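REQUEST FORM: STRUCTURE PREDICTION
Request ID: SP-0412
Submitted by: Lab K.M.
Chain count: 1
Length (residues): 99
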Amino acid sequence: MTELGILLYQRLRTAPAFRYGLVGIEVDEFRTYSELLEEEIVAIPGLVVASPIGRELGQADKFQNFSPGYIWQPYAGEVYKPLIASRDLKEKLNELLVA
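STATUS: Completed
RESULT:
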């Protein structure tokens, strides 16, 4: 999954204009632009924002350059947690815990 994440970030560098982007298996920190504005975004690895948004949030200095017009918190890769990702495996574990 990390390799796919890297490929997606490579694509974002040449993508048409966008406000923000985030790669991840569970991208649930926010979903909408208004949620982005409400969150403490510095702690989200992989978050790419248009430079004006970083300035609007007052946090541009905490990001690194990503591509012209964009800044980011560098991507940290994915960590696979099969007991969280698979309902079937979680049920099998729960069966063991009940026995």
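NOTES: The beta strands are 20-21, 48-50, 64-67, 70-72.
Reviewed by: T.R.
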